[in-house]
Amino acid sequence: MQRFHGIIGIIFILGIAYLLSNNKKKINYRLVFSGLVLQLLIAIAILKVQPIQFFFQNMGKGMQKIEQFAKAGAGFVYGGIATLGTDGQPQRYEIAHTFVFAFNVTATIILVCILVAIFYYLGIMQRLVSLIARGMNVLMKVSGAEALSNVASAFVGQVEAQVMVRPYLKGMTKSELLASMSGSLACIAGGILIVYANMGAQAGMDLAPKLIMASLMAAPGALIIAKIVFPETEESQTMGKVKLEVKSEYTNLIDAITHGAGDGFKIAMNVIAMIIGFIALIALIDWCLLNFFHLFNPDLNITLDWIFGKIFYPFAWAMGVPSEDLNSTATLLGQKLTINEFIAFKNLTSQQVPIITEKGLLIVSIAICGFANFSSVGMLIGGIGTLAPERRADLARLGMKALICGTLASYLSASIAGILL
């Protein structure tokens, strides 16, 4: 029966979405059911079907290769810097198997952004997104704009996904807009996904297939939750059709490479700044909490992790996390939502918040694999607001709903995957 504990999580998550619904009578249960089936099929394919499992395992190895290629560039720039090797002895950075977070992460993000820019210039990215979106459009009967935006979010960043549906943003219904925002927060960009997979590889964790599965499952998952919370009551301009016409902004291949490198550097610097700032802020808050509660009881060690562990414990339990990993999972869920997913993954892969069981690792990896956190909501509203200024008021009103939907979508994917292990 432990295997099917995740069914409680599915009911719990869908129940929360139902309670938050602004029009319960208009919920499209066919869409909900078909989306759940699609999520289940994705999970079964990656976890249980041997050839597909083998394919994604090799894709994970390919992600590790990308980090090695990225390090060839970073090694030239930082080659004179010494770092500690696996034996604890100093050695040059460009030597194999050395890892310095800032250098490796920066190099990997830059290389992936260059590859995405090249694929975009060649039209490969648009064709791939359009093909998958057509399939989702047929299966779930969602509008073309919703399908395109959610599928694009599984490959590129939050704002970049919205660029692909820019012509439709002005005329999107509020339900479509929420679904689009929820997908951007539930999924995770390819470059960041590769960084997390390689962080896991450094710690001996095979996270790549889990994270790929999480990002693919998040697209239909976000649509399920968003369409329960805000059912469609208006007429969509793109219902029943998927049409993607996004021309490349690059002049030629060299222009694509240089823009990709520049964009990657900006993203990497933003990641590093967030990591430094949030870890420092957490240390400050923990110090304040400890000193305050020690005034009443010297043994009362209240920290942010302790608080997160209590608040998110019911979600971890409902998703089917084994008892020995419940507190750690709850802590990581709290860190991901209130701080950001980078902190959660860093603490997971460094074992600062240890996960012991294989099932616990699967569930928590999927549950924290997404951009749904408070800072990302601000970035998303700002990004879409720039593309469609006339929708700023709608975006602001839907921001918190999108955060809840994106979070619940990740939890829904984790619950379904946990049933299969």
TrEMBL record:
Belongs to the concentrative nucleoside transporter (CNT) (TC 2.A.41) family. It is a multi-pass membrane protein. Its main location: membrane. The chain crosses the membrane at residues 5-21, 27-47, 98-122, 177-199, 211-230, 271-296, 361-388, 400-420. Keywords: Cell membrane, Membrane, Transmembrane, Transmembrane helix. The keyword Ribonucleoprotein does not apply. It is found in: Cell membrane. This is NupC/NupG family nucleoside CNT transporter. Coiled coil: none annotated. Residues 211-418 form the Concentrative nucleoside transporter C-terminal domain. The keyword Magnesium does not apply. Pfam families: Gate (PF07670), Nucleos_tra2_C (PF07662), Nucleos_tra2_N (PF01773). The lineage of its organism: Bacteria, Pseudomonadati, Bacteroidota, Sphingobacteriia, Sphingobacteriales. Residues 8-80 form the Concentrative nucleoside transporter N-terminal domain. Residues 103-201 form the Nucleoside transporter/FeoB GTPase Gate domain.
